[in-house]
Amino acid sequence: MEKVETSLFDGVTDEEYARMTECFKTTLKTHRKGEEVAMPPGRVGVVHRGRISLMKTDESGVRTIFEQLGEGGVFGSMLGIAGGDTGFFLIAEEDCDVLYVDYDHIMKRCPNACTYHSTIVRNLVRLMAEKTQALSEHLEVLSHRTTREKLLAYFRLLAAKTHSQYFTLPFSQTNLADYLCVDRSAMLRELAGMHRDGLVEVDRRNVKLNLHKSQG
Amino acid sequence: MEKVETSLFDGVTDEEYARMTECFKTTLKTHRKGEEVAMPPGRVGVVHRGRISLMKTDESGVRTIFEQLGEGGVFGSMLGIAGGDTGFFLIAEEDCDVLYVDYDHIMKRCPNACTYHSTIVRNLVRLMAEKTQALSEHLEVLSHRTTREKLLAYFRLLAAKTHSQYFTLPFSQTNLADYLCVDRSAMLRELAGMHRDGLVEVDRRNVKLNLHKSQG
DNA sequence: CTTTGTTTGTTGTATTTGCAACACAGGCAT
DNA sequence: ATGCCTGTGTTGCAAATACAACAAACAAAG
User: Fold this and answer.
1) What pTM value is reported for the model?
2) Mutate to test the interface with A, among B85, B88, B143 (most CBs of A within 10 A)
Protein backbone atom coordinates (compact mmCIF):
# COMPACT_ATOMS: atom_id res chain seq x y z
CA MET A 1 0.00 0.00 0.00
CA GLU A 2 1.20 3.49 -0.78
CA LYS A 3 2.22 5.67 2.10
CA VAL A 4 -0.59 7.74 3.51
CA GLU A 5 0.42 11.34 4.15
CA THR A 6 -1.04 11.90 7.58
CA SER A 7 0.60 13.77 10.39
CA LEU A 8 0.46 10.54 12.35
CA PHE A 9 3.29 9.30 10.14
CA ASP A 10 5.37 12.47 10.06
CA GLY A 11 9.03 11.61 10.25
CA VAL A 12 8.50 8.03 9.18
CA THR A 13 10.33 6.95 6.05
CA ASP A 14 8.54 5.10 3.26
CA GLU A 15 10.56 2.02 4.03
CA GLU A 16 9.61 2.12 7.69
CA TYR A 17 6.00 2.73 6.73
CA ALA A 18 5.99 -0.38 4.60
CA ARG A 19 7.21 -2.51 7.50
CA MET A 20 4.76 -0.80 9.79
CA THR A 21 1.58 -1.58 7.90
CA GLU A 22 2.42 -5.26 8.24
CA CYS A 23 2.74 -5.06 12.00
CA PHE A 24 0.06 -2.43 12.62
CA LYS A 25 -2.99 -3.80 10.80
CA THR A 26 -3.79 -0.40 9.37
CA THR A 27 -6.99 -0.06 7.39
CA LEU A 28 -7.92 2.72 5.00
CA LYS A 29 -11.63 3.24 4.54
CA THR A 30 -13.52 5.60 2.25
CA HIS A 31 -16.80 7.19 3.27
CA ARG A 32 -19.32 9.09 1.17
CA LYS A 33 -20.65 12.48 2.19
CA GLY A 34 -23.46 12.12 4.70
CA GLU A 35 -22.53 8.58 5.69
CA GLU A 36 -21.93 7.57 9.26
CA VAL A 37 -18.27 6.84 9.95
CA ALA A 38 -17.58 3.78 12.05
CA MET A 39 -15.89 4.12 15.44
CA PRO A 40 -14.51 0.63 16.00
CA PRO A 41 -13.61 -0.09 19.64
CA GLY A 42 -9.92 -0.42 20.29
CA ARG A 43 -8.93 1.42 17.16
CA VAL A 44 -7.74 4.94 16.48
CA GLY A 45 -9.14 6.74 13.46
CA VAL A 46 -7.25 9.46 11.64
CA VAL A 47 -8.91 11.64 9.03
CA HIS A 48 -6.77 11.45 5.93
CA ARG A 49 -9.01 13.33 3.50
CA GLY A 50 -12.24 15.28 3.99
CA ARG A 51 -14.09 16.49 7.04
CA ILE A 52 -16.02 14.63 9.71
CA SER A 53 -18.36 15.95 12.40
CA LEU A 54 -18.45 14.40 15.83
CA MET A 55 -22.00 14.82 17.08
CA LYS A 56 -24.65 13.63 19.43
CA THR A 57 -28.41 13.43 19.40
CA ASP A 58 -30.11 13.35 22.77
CA GLU A 59 -33.34 11.64 23.81
CA SER A 60 -35.52 14.52 22.66
CA GLY A 61 -33.89 14.74 19.26
CA VAL A 62 -31.69 17.76 19.92
CA ARG A 63 -28.53 17.56 17.87
CA THR A 64 -25.18 18.90 19.00
CA ILE A 65 -21.98 19.20 17.01
CA PHE A 66 -19.02 18.62 19.32
CA GLU A 67 -16.07 18.77 17.01
CA GLN A 68 -15.16 19.09 13.40
CA LEU A 69 -12.35 16.77 12.44
CA GLY A 70 -10.29 18.03 9.53
CA GLU A 71 -7.32 16.26 7.98
CA GLY A 72 -5.18 14.89 10.78
CA GLY A 73 -8.12 14.80 13.17
CA VAL A 74 -8.10 11.77 15.45
CA PHE A 75 -10.89 9.91 17.17
CA GLY A 76 -11.54 6.67 18.98
CA SER A 77 -12.93 5.44 22.26
CA MET A 78 -9.41 4.99 23.60
CA LEU A 79 -8.74 8.67 23.04
CA GLY A 80 -11.42 9.90 25.39
CA ILE A 81 -14.45 10.28 23.18
CA ALA A 82 -16.77 7.78 24.70
CA GLY A 83 -17.85 5.40 22.00
CA GLY A 84 -20.86 3.16 22.02
CA ASP A 85 -23.71 3.81 24.39
CA THR A 86 -23.20 7.54 24.91
CA GLY A 87 -25.02 8.58 21.76
CA PHE A 88 -21.98 10.00 20.02
CA PHE A 89 -21.52 9.34 16.32
CA LEU A 90 -19.50 10.56 13.36
CA ILE A 91 -20.88 11.90 10.08
CA ALA A 92 -18.80 12.53 6.98
CA GLU A 93 -19.35 16.15 5.96
CA GLU A 94 -17.62 15.45 2.67
CA ASP A 95 -16.31 12.35 0.95
CA CYS A 96 -13.40 11.28 3.07
CA ASP A 97 -10.74 8.67 3.77
CA VAL A 98 -10.09 7.45 7.27
CA LEU A 99 -7.08 5.50 8.44
CA TYR A 100 -7.65 3.06 11.27
CA VAL A 101 -4.83 1.77 13.45
CA ASP A 102 -4.98 -0.57 16.41
CA TYR A 103 -4.53 1.39 19.62
CA ASP A 104 -2.71 -1.45 21.33
CA HIS A 105 -0.28 -1.77 18.45
CA ILE A 106 0.62 1.86 18.87
CA MET A 107 0.81 1.84 22.63
CA LYS A 108 2.34 -1.53 23.48
CA ARG A 109 6.05 -1.87 23.77
CA CYS A 110 7.37 -3.00 20.47
CA PRO A 111 9.25 -6.30 20.70
CA ASN A 112 11.74 -5.20 18.08
CA ALA A 113 12.19 -1.71 19.55
CA CYS A 114 11.61 0.01 16.23
CA THR A 115 12.48 3.67 16.23
CA TYR A 116 9.56 4.67 14.03
CA HIS A 117 7.23 3.21 16.60
CA SER A 118 8.02 5.90 19.13
CA THR A 119 7.75 8.49 16.38
CA ILE A 120 4.14 7.47 15.87
CA VAL A 121 3.42 7.82 19.57
CA ARG A 122 4.97 11.28 19.66
CA ASN A 123 2.88 12.31 16.67
CA LEU A 124 -0.17 11.01 18.47
CA VAL A 125 0.60 13.31 21.38
CA ARG A 126 0.66 16.21 18.97
CA LEU A 127 -2.65 15.24 17.39
CA MET A 128 -4.19 14.82 20.82
CA ALA A 129 -2.97 18.29 21.72
CA GLU A 130 -4.74 19.68 18.66
CA LYS A 131 -7.88 17.88 19.71
CA THR A 132 -7.60 19.33 23.19
CA GLN A 133 -7.23 22.76 21.64
CA ALA A 134 -10.33 22.31 19.50
CA LEU A 135 -12.37 21.14 22.48
CA SER A 136 -11.10 24.00 24.63
CA GLU A 137 -12.05 26.50 21.98
CA HIS A 138 -15.50 25.02 21.78
CA LEU A 139 -15.82 25.17 25.55
CA GLU A 140 -14.68 28.77 25.53
CA VAL A 141 -17.42 29.62 23.05
CA LEU A 142 -20.09 27.76 25.00
CA SER A 143 -18.96 29.31 28.26
CA HIS A 144 -20.61 32.57 27.26
CA ARG A 145 -24.12 32.99 28.53
CA THR A 146 -25.93 34.77 25.72
CA THR A 147 -26.32 33.84 22.07
CA ARG A 148 -24.75 37.11 20.97
CA GLU A 149 -21.64 36.50 23.06
CA LYS A 150 -21.35 32.95 21.76
CA LEU A 151 -21.58 34.16 18.19
CA LEU A 152 -19.01 36.89 18.76
CA ALA A 153 -16.64 34.53 20.54
CA TYR A 154 -16.82 32.06 17.70
CA PHE A 155 -16.53 34.71 15.01
CA ARG A 156 -13.51 36.26 16.72
CA LEU A 157 -11.92 32.83 16.83
CA LEU A 158 -12.41 32.34 13.09
CA ALA A 159 -11.22 35.88 12.39
CA ALA A 160 -8.06 35.25 14.42
CA LYS A 161 -7.41 31.98 12.61
CA THR A 162 -7.78 33.48 9.16
CA HIS A 163 -6.13 36.78 10.12
CA SER A 164 -9.04 38.55 8.51
CA GLN A 165 -12.38 40.04 9.37
CA TYR A 166 -13.77 38.16 6.39
CA PHE A 167 -14.13 34.42 6.71
CA THR A 168 -16.31 31.51 5.75
CA LEU A 169 -18.17 29.31 8.20
CA PRO A 170 -17.13 25.66 8.13
CA PHE A 171 -20.79 24.63 8.18
CA SER A 172 -24.31 25.81 7.45
CA GLN A 173 -26.13 28.22 9.73
CA THR A 174 -28.33 25.37 10.88
CA ASN A 175 -25.25 23.45 11.95
CA LEU A 176 -23.74 26.56 13.47
CA ALA A 177 -26.71 26.70 15.83
CA ASP A 178 -26.07 23.06 16.75
CA TYR A 179 -22.43 23.89 17.40
CA LEU A 180 -23.33 26.87 19.59
CA CYS A 181 -26.05 24.84 21.33
CA VAL A 182 -28.72 27.45 20.77
CA ASP A 183 -32.05 27.44 19.02
CA ARG A 184 -31.67 28.19 15.36
CA SER A 185 -34.42 30.77 15.20
CA ALA A 186 -33.09 32.48 18.30
CA MET A 187 -29.67 32.60 16.68
CA LEU A 188 -31.06 34.13 13.52
CA ARG A 189 -32.98 36.67 15.52
CA GLU A 190 -29.79 37.59 17.33
CA LEU A 191 -27.81 37.74 14.08
CA ALA A 192 -30.40 40.17 12.74
CA GLY A 193 -29.99 42.27 15.87
CA MET A 194 -26.22 42.21 15.56
CA HIS A 195 -26.51 43.34 11.98
CA ARG A 196 -28.73 46.24 13.07
CA ASP A 197 -26.05 47.17 15.60
CA GLY A 198 -23.42 47.08 12.88
CA LEU A 199 -21.44 44.23 14.41
CA VAL A 200 -21.55 41.71 11.61
CA GLU A 201 -22.70 41.11 8.08
CA VAL A 202 -23.65 37.55 7.28
CA ASP A 203 -24.52 36.15 3.90
CA ARG A 204 -24.95 32.40 3.79
CA ARG A 205 -21.61 31.05 5.05
CA ASN A 206 -19.75 34.30 4.48
CA VAL A 207 -19.18 36.54 7.47
CA LYS A 208 -17.75 39.99 7.86
CA LEU A 209 -16.93 40.83 11.45
CA ASN A 210 -16.59 44.50 12.36
CA LEU A 211 -13.76 44.07 14.80
CA HIS A 212 -13.69 47.63 16.10
CA LYS A 213 -17.37 47.62 17.03
CA SER A 214 -17.16 44.15 18.56
CA GLN A 215 -14.37 45.44 20.82
CA GLY A 216 -11.63 43.10 19.48
CA MET B 1 15.37 13.14 44.40
CA GLU B 2 12.92 10.48 45.39
CA LYS B 3 10.75 9.06 42.67
CA VAL B 4 7.46 10.88 42.25
CA GLU B 5 4.50 8.55 41.90
CA THR B 6 2.70 10.08 38.98
CA SER B 7 1.02 8.21 36.17
CA LEU B 8 3.43 9.96 33.85
CA PHE B 9 6.15 7.69 35.21
CA ASP B 10 4.18 4.45 35.28
CA GLY B 11 6.35 1.56 34.21
CA VAL B 12 9.56 3.43 34.86
CA THR B 13 11.92 1.84 37.35
CA ASP B 14 13.48 3.85 40.16
CA GLU B 15 16.85 3.49 38.54
CA GLU B 16 15.59 4.80 35.23
CA TYR B 17 13.83 7.61 37.01
CA ALA B 18 17.07 8.68 38.64
CA ARG B 19 18.82 8.91 35.29
CA MET B 20 15.82 10.66 33.83
CA THR B 21 15.63 13.56 36.23
CA GLU B 22 19.17 14.48 35.24
CA CYS B 23 18.32 14.65 31.56
CA PHE B 24 14.77 15.96 31.90
CA LYS B 25 15.17 19.01 34.12
CA THR B 26 12.11 18.06 36.12
CA THR B 27 10.95 20.50 38.77
CA LEU B 28 8.63 19.83 41.67
CA LYS B 29 6.77 22.86 42.96
CA THR B 30 4.41 23.20 45.90
CA HIS B 31 1.47 25.57 45.85
CA ARG B 32 -0.77 26.70 48.67
CA LYS B 33 -4.54 26.57 48.44
CA GLY B 34 -5.87 29.55 46.55
CA GLU B 35 -2.58 30.39 44.92
CA GLU B 36 -2.22 30.77 41.20
CA VAL B 37 -0.26 27.94 39.65
CA ALA B 38 2.28 28.94 37.04
CA MET B 39 1.93 27.75 33.46
CA PRO B 40 5.48 28.09 32.14
CA PRO B 41 5.68 28.08 28.35
CA GLY B 42 7.31 25.03 26.86
CA ARG B 43 6.74 22.94 29.94
CA VAL B 44 4.25 20.26 30.83
CA GLY B 45 2.74 20.31 34.29
CA VAL B 46 1.48 17.19 36.02
CA VAL B 47 -0.57 17.36 39.21
CA HIS B 48 1.11 15.12 41.73
CA ARG B 49 -0.92 15.98 44.81
CA GLY B 50 -4.04 18.09 45.30
CA ARG B 51 -6.52 19.63 42.90
CA ILE B 52 -6.21 22.50 40.47
CA SER B 53 -8.91 24.38 38.58
CA LEU B 54 -8.32 25.60 35.07
CA MET B 55 -10.40 28.73 34.69
CA LYS B 56 -10.93 31.94 32.82
CA THR B 57 -12.29 35.36 33.64
CA ASP B 58 -13.63 37.38 30.75
CA GLU B 59 -13.65 41.13 30.22
CA SER B 60 -16.84 41.64 32.20
CA GLY B 61 -15.61 39.62 35.16
CA VAL B 62 -17.57 36.44 34.48
CA ARG B 63 -15.65 33.44 35.73
CA THR B 64 -15.73 30.03 34.09
CA ILE B 65 -14.28 26.78 35.34
CA PHE B 66 -13.08 24.73 32.39
CA GLU B 67 -11.53 21.71 34.00
CA GLN B 68 -10.65 20.29 37.36
CA LEU B 69 -7.25 18.67 37.35
CA GLY B 70 -6.90 15.90 39.90
CA GLU B 71 -3.82 13.82 40.52
CA GLY B 72 -2.34 12.89 37.17
CA GLY B 73 -3.97 15.85 35.46
CA VAL B 74 -1.76 17.48 32.84
CA PHE B 75 -1.59 21.01 31.51
CA GLY B 76 0.64 23.24 29.46
CA SER B 77 0.47 25.45 26.42
CA MET B 78 1.98 22.69 24.29
CA LEU B 79 -0.92 20.44 25.20
CA GLY B 80 -3.60 22.60 23.66
CA ILE B 81 -4.65 24.82 26.51
CA ALA B 82 -3.68 28.20 25.21
CA GLY B 83 -1.44 29.85 27.74
CA GLY B 84 -0.70 33.50 28.05
CA ASP B 85 -2.95 36.05 26.44
CA THR B 86 -6.15 34.05 26.35
CA GLY B 87 -7.09 34.77 29.93
CA PHE B 88 -6.76 31.22 31.17
CA PHE B 89 -5.17 30.60 34.53
CA LEU B 90 -4.80 27.87 37.15
CA ILE B 91 -5.82 28.07 40.79
CA ALA B 92 -4.89 25.52 43.43
CA GLU B 93 -8.12 24.30 45.04
CA GLU B 94 -6.07 22.62 47.78
CA ASP B 95 -2.41 22.58 48.70
CA CYS B 96 -0.75 20.74 45.87
CA ASP B 97 2.48 19.59 44.28
CA VAL B 98 3.06 20.01 40.59
CA LEU B 99 5.75 18.33 38.54
CA TYR B 100 7.08 20.28 35.60
CA VAL B 101 8.88 18.63 32.70
CA ASP B 102 10.26 20.17 29.54
CA TYR B 103 8.00 19.36 26.63
CA ASP B 104 10.89 19.18 24.20
CA HIS B 105 12.75 16.76 26.40
CA ILE B 106 9.78 14.45 26.31
CA MET B 107 9.08 14.81 22.63
CA LYS B 108 12.49 15.01 21.02
CA ARG B 109 14.24 11.90 19.92
CA CYS B 110 16.48 10.75 22.66
CA PRO B 111 20.12 10.56 21.57
CA ASN B 112 20.71 7.49 23.70
CA ALA B 113 17.47 5.78 22.66
CA CYS B 114 16.43 5.08 26.24
CA THR B 115 13.50 2.74 26.55
CA TYR B 116 11.93 4.60 29.44
CA HIS B 117 11.75 7.67 27.24
CA SER B 118 9.11 6.14 25.01
CA THR B 119 7.29 4.90 28.09
CA ILE B 120 6.86 8.49 29.19
CA VAL B 121 5.46 9.47 25.83
CA ARG B 122 2.98 6.62 25.90
CA ASN B 123 1.89 7.63 29.38
CA LEU B 124 1.43 11.16 28.11
CA VAL B 125 -0.94 9.87 25.44
CA ARG B 126 -2.97 8.23 28.17
CA LEU B 127 -3.08 11.38 30.27
CA MET B 128 -4.07 13.40 27.23
CA ALA B 129 -6.86 10.94 26.56
CA GLU B 130 -8.14 11.49 30.09
CA LYS B 131 -8.04 15.21 29.50
CA THR B 132 -9.97 14.81 26.29
CA GLN B 133 -12.53 12.76 28.16
CA ALA B 134 -12.92 15.41 30.84
CA LEU B 135 -13.35 18.16 28.27
CA SER B 136 -15.84 16.08 26.28
CA GLU B 137 -17.85 15.47 29.39
CA HIS B 138 -17.89 19.15 30.14
CA LEU B 139 -18.99 19.90 26.60
CA GLU B 140 -21.72 17.30 26.86
CA VAL B 141 -23.03 19.00 29.98
CA LEU B 142 -22.90 22.47 28.44
CA SER B 143 -24.55 21.24 25.25
CA HIS B 144 -27.88 21.12 27.06
CA ARG B 145 -29.96 24.23 26.67
CA THR B 146 -31.62 24.66 30.04
CA THR B 147 -30.13 24.91 33.50
CA ARG B 148 -32.17 21.93 34.69
CA GLU B 149 -30.83 19.74 31.90
CA LYS B 150 -27.27 20.85 32.59
CA LEU B 151 -27.64 20.02 36.25
CA LEU B 152 -29.16 16.62 35.52
CA ALA B 153 -26.51 15.80 32.93
CA TYR B 154 -23.75 16.65 35.37
CA PHE B 155 -25.38 14.86 38.29
CA ARG B 156 -25.94 11.75 36.19
CA LEU B 157 -22.28 11.86 35.26
CA LEU B 158 -21.20 11.98 38.89
CA ALA B 159 -23.70 9.27 39.82
CA ALA B 160 -22.32 7.04 37.07
CA LYS B 161 -18.75 7.63 38.20
CA THR B 162 -19.46 6.83 41.83
CA HIS B 163 -21.93 4.04 41.02
CA SER B 164 -24.31 5.64 43.47
CA GLN B 165 -27.18 8.06 43.58
CA TYR B 166 -25.40 9.71 46.49
CA PHE B 167 -22.30 11.72 45.71
CA THR B 168 -20.37 14.80 46.72
CA LEU B 169 -19.72 17.75 44.45
CA PRO B 170 -16.05 18.43 43.74
CA PHE B 171 -16.62 22.13 44.37
CA SER B 172 -18.92 24.63 46.03
CA GLN B 173 -22.30 25.51 44.55
CA THR B 174 -20.90 28.86 43.54
CA ASN B 175 -18.21 27.12 41.55
CA LEU B 176 -20.71 24.63 40.20
CA ALA B 177 -22.56 27.54 38.59
CA ASP B 178 -19.28 28.69 37.05
CA TYR B 179 -18.69 25.18 35.73
CA LEU B 180 -22.19 24.99 34.24
CA CYS B 181 -21.86 28.52 32.88
CA VAL B 182 -25.13 29.68 34.39
CA ASP B 183 -26.06 32.39 36.81
CA ARG B 184 -25.76 31.19 40.38
CA SER B 185 -29.13 32.49 41.51
CA ALA B 186 -30.81 31.00 38.46
CA MET B 187 -29.17 27.69 39.29
CA LEU B 188 -30.37 27.82 42.87
CA ARG B 189 -33.86 28.67 41.74
CA GLU B 190 -33.79 25.70 39.41
CA LEU B 191 -32.41 23.42 42.12
CA ALA B 192 -35.30 24.46 44.34
CA GLY B 193 -37.70 23.61 41.52
CA MET B 194 -36.06 20.23 40.98
CA HIS B 195 -36.36 19.52 44.66
CA ARG B 196 -40.08 20.36 44.52
CA ASP B 197 -40.40 17.92 41.61
CA GLY B 198 -38.65 15.24 43.64
CA LEU B 199 -35.67 14.96 41.31
CA VAL B 200 -32.85 15.77 43.69
CA GLU B 201 -31.98 16.58 47.25
CA VAL B 202 -29.03 18.88 47.73
CA ASP B 203 -27.37 19.81 50.98
CA ARG B 204 -24.20 21.80 50.62
CA ARG B 205 -21.95 19.61 48.50
CA ASN B 206 -23.94 16.46 49.11
CA VAL B 207 -26.37 15.38 46.43
CA LYS B 208 -28.96 12.65 46.22
CA LEU B 209 -30.17 12.05 42.68
CA ASN B 210 -33.49 10.25 42.27
CA LEU B 211 -32.52 8.26 39.23
CA HIS B 212 -35.94 6.82 38.46
CA LYS B 213 -37.62 10.23 38.36
CA SER B 214 -34.79 11.78 36.38
CA GLN B 215 -35.31 9.03 33.76
CA GLY B 216 -31.85 7.46 34.13
C1' DC C 1 -15.63 36.06 71.10
C1' DT C 2 -15.44 39.02 67.24
C1' DT C 3 -14.35 40.10 62.76
C1' DT C 4 -13.88 39.08 58.05
C1' DG C 5 -14.84 36.82 54.02
C1' DT C 6 -17.07 33.23 51.70
C1' DT C 7 -20.95 30.34 50.74
C1' DT C 8 -25.74 29.61 50.63
C1' DG C 9 -30.40 31.15 49.93
C1' DT C 10 -34.28 34.42 48.20
C1' DT C 11 -36.85 37.59 45.32
C1' DG C 12 -38.26 41.20 41.58
C1' DT C 13 -37.80 42.43 36.94
C1' DA C 14 -36.30 43.26 32.26
C1' DT C 15 -34.38 40.49 28.75
C1' DT C 16 -33.43 36.47 26.31
C1' DT C 17 -34.48 32.08 24.93
C1' DG C 18 -36.80 27.87 23.30
C1' DC C 19 -40.52 26.30 20.86
C1' DA C 20 -43.84 25.93 17.25
C1' DA C 21 -45.48 27.28 13.12
C1' DC C 22 -45.02 29.18 8.89
C1' DA C 23 -43.08 31.04 4.20
C1' DC C 24 -39.70 31.03 0.71
C1' DA C 25 -35.42 30.21 -1.98
C1' DG C 26 -32.11 27.00 -3.91
C1' DG C 27 -30.26 22.46 -5.17
C1' DC C 28 -31.11 18.03 -7.10
C1' DA C 29 -33.07 14.11 -9.16
C1' DT C 30 -36.87 12.47 -11.90
C1' DA D 1 -41.21 21.42 -15.30
C1' DT D 2 -42.35 18.95 -11.01
C1' DG D 3 -41.70 17.37 -6.65
C1' DC D 4 -38.65 16.82 -2.68
C1' DC D 5 -35.39 18.10 0.54
C1' DT D 6 -32.43 21.22 2.91
C1' DG D 7 -31.18 25.72 4.26
C1' DT D 8 -32.64 30.33 5.26
C1' DG D 9 -35.76 33.84 7.35
C1' DT D 10 -39.66 35.54 10.31
C1' DT D 11 -42.93 36.01 14.17
C1' DG D 12 -45.84 35.29 18.62
C1' DC D 13 -45.68 33.71 23.00
C1' DA D 14 -44.86 31.22 27.24
C1' DA D 15 -41.02 30.00 29.88
C1' DA D 16 -36.39 30.39 31.41
C1' DT D 17 -32.53 33.27 32.31
C1' DA D 18 -29.29 37.01 33.69
C1' DC D 19 -28.77 40.63 36.62
C1' DA D 20 -28.95 43.09 40.82
C1' DA D 21 -29.70 43.48 45.45
C1' DC D 22 -30.17 41.66 49.68
C1' DA D 23 -30.16 38.46 54.06
C1' DA D 24 -28.56 34.75 56.65
C1' DA D 25 -25.44 30.75 57.67
C1' DC D 26 -20.93 29.27 58.03
C1' DA D 27 -15.75 29.05 58.25
C1' DA D 28 -11.41 30.82 59.17
C1' DA D 29 -8.44 34.00 61.48
C1' DG D 30 -7.28 37.31 64.99
Assistant:
1) 0.94
2) B143
